[in-house]
Each structure stands twice: as structure tokens, then as C-alpha cells.
Specification:
Two copies of one chain form a homodimer. By secondary structure, chain A is of the alpha/beta class. Chain A has helices at about 10-20, 45-55, 60-70, 75-85, 110-115, 120-145, 160-170, 180-185, 195-200, 205-215, 230-245, 260-270, 285-295, 305-310, 390-400, 405-410, 420-440, and strands spanning about 25-30, 40-45, 90, 100, 105-110, 145-150, 175, 220-225, 250-255, 280, 300-305, 320-325, 330, 345-350, 355-360, 370, 375-380, 380, 420.
């Protein structure tokens, strides 16, 4: 893929390393420094797109010409760029895994220039996809088993983001998506009803309902709030009786007091013996709205969740970092105010209900623990093929069941806190002392 | 472009219209219902990508096969889909124009099925791009003439979003972007320095600074906060003196109290006679941070603005709608609770300092006013070619100068409020009455 999908400083640094023959393998660690206040856990995502990028990484001739003509790079730089492929190793937490603050999601080990050039893309995909998967997971927690449908496509931050949101929400258990291309591309269930404009395109609401039932027998969700919600429900009941409709029937509420209207709609439907007609609610919902409706016992069978999930509206990014932790055989760390990072390639050892230990990759796992990071790429090639979404979904389900209850609180969560292993603490202390000596003028 | 980039309900409705021969031209109006509390104005954006989409709109054979095999559409639907192109007319507010709540950004008039199928893509692009352009414009207001550089790429919601953020921030006056591919694609100035990892890759900070100055003479920004910011500045001064460096020099502060450190760095530099060395500040900044720093008189020459601009962190979407306002010769409106829309194709008449009147497209402009919406597409073809970014930038500059001061307040803005014309008020009342009659069982 296009190596210009990066920040200019990555090109500058890479050119400098290449000119100077600085080819020592570097390890960079990608992690989330801290969680937003309302997040008790995160869901790792973005890895598969990162691996696609790394496997196809390279400069095009057009990209090289631009680097020469507009960015001022020299012929020797272009020669080196032209030969560049990603030849490194990657360890990562597979998609769908629940992760916590400070835990590496992905670690790259590659010659310095390569590891540096891919930073921007890797950060972008892991940050964005983990943000949205984690937000969608909160909807999943709130819905307590009721169906969720992704309605986000129309207001995500771009088309690519909309496709990703459909995939990521399916990863954490959404039942379907309205996004047709995403459904096709990722093998998801597509779901869709009608818009208010459809109702308005007919002389009366009843005629619109009748036309839709004719055209889509067996999969008919009636949008009932265009003029008056309960009058709409009565029109649906009338139509179902007159036409003897029986299968795949639902009403959708999209405005007003959804809890109140759902109760009234359910009473009307049940009063007409139409217990099988489902109620779908939508309209600017987020996980807190869903939580309120479910706790209040609103008889809603499925929620359409759109914009606020798709952009992770309350916190649309994560505080991710991609930090150099080892260069050659030398552990490295950053001492900038408020941005201290720990040195060395790492591993996360998990046991029990997410009692995680962040340690060194070279450590023996503590008794009864399993490592979260696995080798996913060696020498620039995937260890396995592109993973199926079902695998990530299964992983998320298993982890969700394992999360302690306070981590699932949507308003004031108290998630598990990983601790550092003794070996990591010791290496951090040693590295800090060595760097302090450098600051005072000594050699590194 | 791929017609499956839509919501399933659009396909359902389109198929129904096509089967029923409902080809009457429909007009849909795309607008922002209300502004977030902190926004005194918006900057229209996304139009050019919408027009690209409309010009190339169509179903692929793969898309049709999916519609048949997985979505249950019939052969007659596929035949109709296969022939479908976008043949409609579009009126729109050109990119870079300042717009207010309720003002149509774009109006589509096309046979019902076409106008409906393109809804999702148009909403996506206009919502996202207007959100980000408006957020970047706030940074522009805050910076009061100091340079701004887009650093957002690593944490935007996807790669497409990162490319768009670079273009949109340039549209509202950012001086440069770190995003190399965006710079190439849109003809922007690329800017870049070094990362902390570069410093860490050398035995000492001084050696890293020296290597970078060797490699990039004339365009050297030194990142000084890896170990200790002021020690870093002293190392830069020492290097500049020893090497007699003179041009394109700057230091970058990326952590700590930026105002305080900028003052101290400036004093050190000035004390050494290095008045020409600029100071660039970055690190999680948003427009309010920039505003605080500028008001406090911090000697910062340029701000690197990243994530919070690129995702519009405080409000990552807008409350956009795409509403049917006319069908054939019949004005239409929606009466759903809290979502009432006004009928008829519209125009915005602007005069003075954004004293806007929202009226009907068919109205004569009030004296001294100019219309905001212009015809941009007729019969599915652009009226003009793809517009150059400079035109949008010029439009934004002119509008920014025209905005009243209270609209520019970043914390509690009081923007101009458009009013409805007498003709629009009258049509709204008539339409409401006609629809109320329908609700009570009469014909439309």
C-alpha cells in the first residue's frame, strides 16, 4: 500500500536513518495511555487492516516523484525508499480481545526506518477501530440481550469509517447493519425498513403501509411516527388484519418518548392479538439511552443505533501512543512530562477475571496465566491468513463474560487495573537511571 | 461509484418506487437542524466529493448479484437498478461558505428512486466534512493569525478521514499539514519535524540534533522535550552557534506547560541573539487551549493541531437531515415530534453581516441580498468542473471577515439566526393544514 500515507516527519527520520546506515532492529509498542472516564474496558480492533497495510507496504513511482519534486528528498533517499518493504515482526492482541490501559495492543520489531514509516497508519487504524469497537460494546452491555442494529453509516466520519463501524459493531454482537456494502463485504446481515419520505410519497400513511407490505412480504417493518405514532400503530394493526399478514412484522418508533410509546404500541398490538409483531426503536440513541429504556422495562425488541455509536460521540478517540521501547539490544523509554513510557518488548499475562500483569516478553508467564500478545507477522508476512470476523466475535463474547461487573458500569465504571511485573519495574528503573546519566552529559 | 454505499432501506424504497412507476421528481433538502452549543457558525464542506459520487453513481454487476442472492431482490428490480444513473439537478452552497442552522446546504431534485438512493452518501460526506471544517475554523479563529499545522492523521477516524481533515483544515486557512499523501493529492504544503524516537535513536540528544541538522539543512525543527525541555533548547542554541546555522530553524515544544516553556525558550533564544528561531507548540491542543495561549501572550509562532481538530472531539457530528420537501408539484413536510421540517425547495438570501432569510427558491431575493445556493449539477452533470481548493479558501476568508464578533466567541457564541421569509411561513402553514387533513382521513 501507499507509503505516503504517513506524516512527513516519518519520511524525514526514515531518510536520515537510511543515509546513516542505522538499520538496527527497533521495537515500537502501541498502547492506550489511559482510558476515558466512562470506559471500564476497551475492545482491541484494527489489527487485520494493519497487517494488510504492512504486507503491501511500498512506495509507488508517483510517490517517489512527489518526494523528490515537492519534498526535497535526494536521489540516494529515493533509491533507498524504492527498495523499502516492511520486513519486520509483529506481535499483537487479536481483534475482539478486551484490553486495558497501558497494555500493548501491537508491537512492531523492524529496521528503524520501516518501523517508523508505518507508525501513522498503524496508530490511525488501531485508535479509530478500538474506539468504535469499544463504544459499540457499551451498547451491547446496555441492551442486555435485546437485538442491536447498526444505523451509523449516514453520519460516520467518512465512508471508510461507516464500513468499519458496521464490521466492528458486528464483532461485539450487533445482529445486523443497515450498511449494504458493509454487509456484502463482511458477510453481515443487512437490515432495513422505510424512511419517512416513503410514507410522504403516498397520499396517505395507510396506502404507504399497504404498498410496502405488497412489495416486501415477510420482511415488513412499518415506520409509524411520520404523522402520529399511535395512529400509525392502529393503521398497521388494521392492515395486518385486513391482509392476514403473519410473518416478519415489526413497527419502528423513531421519535418522541420511546419508552412511553413502546408501552402504548405494545398494548395496542397485544390487544389485537398481535404478540408476534416486534417493536424496533431508533432516533439518536446511545448506550445510556438504551440502558435507561431497558432498565425501565420498555417493551422494545431491537434498537437501531446510529451516529453516537459510529463516531463514539462522547469520546471519539483514544489516547494512543506508538513508542520506541527497544533499539538493538538497548531498552529505551521516554521521559517527557506526563508521557513517560516503559521500556522493552512486552507481554500481557492474564488470569482470573482480568487480573492482568504487564511484563516483559522474555519473562516466563506467571502460574495460571495466558499471554495476550501472539506473533501475527514474521519477516513481513502474516503468520496466519486474514482472520474471519467470527473468531473475533467469539473472543469478545468470552472476554465479556469474564469481565468483573464494575467494569461494565456505563456511567462510573471501575475496571480492572493491570500491574507491572517485577522484571518490568526493574528494567524501567535501570533505564531511567541510564537516561538520567545521559541527560547529565554521560554516554548512553 | 458503488450504489451499494447506502442503507438497505434506500434500496427497499427505490425498488418499490421503480416497480410502481413512481418517477415524479422529488426534492430533498440537506440541512443542519441545530448547532452544537459551542458553535456560532458552520463552514459548508463535502460538496465536491458528493458531486463526484453522483456523476459516477451506478450498480456494479457484483452489487446486483449481491442484491439478488443475499437481499432477495427480484429480476425486475435488478433490471431497473442496472439502468439507474443519477440524472437529477443539485443546488448547493459552495464549499467554504459560512452557514447557519436550518439553512439548506444542498438540495437534490431527481426521480424519487435516485434521490432516495444517494441519501446516505450525501449525508455522510456533508455531515462529516462540515463538522471537521467547522472545528478547524474555530482553531483558525483562536490562533489570531499565528500559523496552524494539521497533525491529525494518526488519530482521525480512518485514512479517508485523515486525508479529508488535511484538505478541510487548509480550506479554513491552516498553513500546512503533516499528512504527506494529502499534501500530494490536494497540493498542500507538507510540514514535518522529528519524533521523540529519533532523539532516542542516538546516544545523546545533542547527537540527534546534529544529525538532523546535517540531513535537513534549511528546514530544521528541533523537538526539545524528550528529556528536559530547557536543556533541549540550550542544546539547540549550542548547535546553532557551533555550526553557524541560519535558516529555517525552529524548536518544537510537545509537553508540559506550553505557555511557560515557550516564554522560557524564547528568552533563552533571544538571549543568544537567535530571534529568527521560531517556536512551534503541539501536544493534544484544541481551539480553547490555543485561545488561552494566545490571550496569555505566549510567544508561540505556530501551533500543531491534531486529534481534537481531526475528529472534532467536543462534537464529532452534526444534527443533519435529508428531508423530502417536494414531490412532483406538491410541497411536503415531516411532522414527527421534534423533527418538523419546512416544505418546498429553498434558497438562503444573505445580506449585511449574515442577516440571512431562508425563503423559497422561487422567491425574488430581498433587496440587497445575494442567494447562497447555486446550481451545481443539472441532468446528472456538473455545471462547472471540480473546484480548486483556493476558491473555497477565498470564500471562507471573505465570510469569516463578515461574521459578527459574538458568533466568533469560542465558549458561548451567539451567532446570527436566520429568519423564514413570509412566503416560506405561508407555505409551511398551508402544508401543515393539508397534512392534518390527511391524518384525519382525508385525501392528500
Amino acid at each position: 500500500m501507499n507509503a505516503l500515507l504517513t506524516d512527513l516527519y516519518e519520511l524525514n527520520m526514515a531518510a536520515s536513518y537510511l543515509r546513516r546506515g542505522m538499520h538496527a532492529p527497533a521495537t515500537f509498542s502501541l498502547f492506550v495511555r489511559s482510558l476515558p472516564a466512562r470506559r471500564g474496558f476497551l475492545v482491541a480492533a484494527g489489527l487485520e487492516d494493519c497487517l494488510d497495510f504492512l504486507e503491501s507496504f511500498g512506495f509507488s513511482e508517483a510517490g517517489l516523484a512527489y518526494a523528490r519534486d515537492s519534498l526535497g528528498f535526494e536521489e540516494r533517499d529515493l533509491e533507498a525508499f524504492r527498495r523499502l518493504r516492511f520486513t519486520g515482526d509483529v506481535w499483537a492482541v487479536p481483534e475482539g480481545t478486551v484490553v486495558l490501559a497501558g497494555e500493548p495492543l501491537l508491537e512492531v520489531t523492524a529496521p528503524m526506518a520501516e518501523a517508523q514509516l508505518v507508525e501513522t497508519f498503524l496508530l490511525n487504524q488501531v485508535t479509530f477501530q478500538t474506539t468504535v469497537a469499544s463504544k459499540a460494546a457499551r451498547c451491547r452491555v446496555a441492551a442486555r440481550g435485546r437485538d442491536l442494529v447498526d444505523f451509523a453509516f449516514r453520519r460516520t466520519q467518512g465512508i471508510e469509517a461507516g464500513l468499519a463501524a458496521a464490521r466492528l459493531s458486528a464483532m461485539v454482537g450487533f445482529a445486523a447493519t443497515s450498511n449494504v456494502e458493509a454487509a456484502r463485504r463482511f458477510g453481515l446481515r443487512a437490515a432495513g425498513t422505510m424512511a419517512h419520505s416513503y410514507i410522504e410519497a403516498f397520499p396517505t400513511e395507510a396506502e404507504a403501509f399497504g404498498a410496502f407490505a405488497d412489495d416486501f412480504p415477510g420482511r415488513t417493518t412499518f415506520l409509524v411516527d411520520t404523522y402520529d405514532t399511535l395512529a400509525g400503530v392502529r393503521a398497521v394493526i388494521e392492515l395486518i388484519r385486513r391482509r392476514h399478514l403473519a410473518e416478519g412484522l415489526a413497527v419502528r418508533l423513531d421519535s418522541g418518548d420511546l419508552g412511553e410509546l413502546a408501552g402504548q404500541a405494545r398494548a395496542l398490538l397485544d390487544g389485537a392479538g398481535l404478540h408476534q409483531v416486534r417493536i424496533l426503536a431508533s432516533g439518536g440513541l446511545d448506550e445510556l439511552d438504551i440502558d435507561d429504556l431497558v432498565r425501565a422495562g420498555a417493551p422494545i425488541d431491537a434498537f437501531g443505533v446510529g451516529t453516537k455509536m459510529g463516531v463514539s460521540a462522547d469520546h471519539p478517540y483514544l489516547d494512543t501512543a506508538y513508542k520506541l521501547v527497544q533499539l538493538g539490544d538497548r531498552p529505551v523509554m521516554k521521559l517527557s512530562a506526563g508521557k513517560v513510557s516503559a521500556p522493552g518488548p512486552k507481554q500481557v499475562f492474564r488470569r482470573g477475571r482480568m487480573e492482568d500483569v504487564i511484563g516483559l516478553r522474555s519473562e516466563a508467564p506467571p502460574a495460571g496465566s495466558a499471554p495476550l500478545l501472539v506473533p501475527v507477522m514474521t519477516g513481513g508476512r502474516r503468520v496466519l491468513g486474514r482472520e474471519r470476523l467470527e473468531a473475533a466475535r467469539g473472543r469478545f463474547e468470552a472476554d465479556l463474560a469474564r469481565l468483573p461487573e464494575p467494569a461494565l458500569d456505563l456511567r462510573a465504571p471501575s475496571g480492572p487495573q493491570p500491574v507491572a511485573s517485577a522484571a518490568l519495574v526493574e528494567l524501567t528503573e535501570q533505564t531511567r537511571e541510564r537516561l538520567a546519566a545521559i541527560r547529565q552529559g554521560g554516554a548512553g
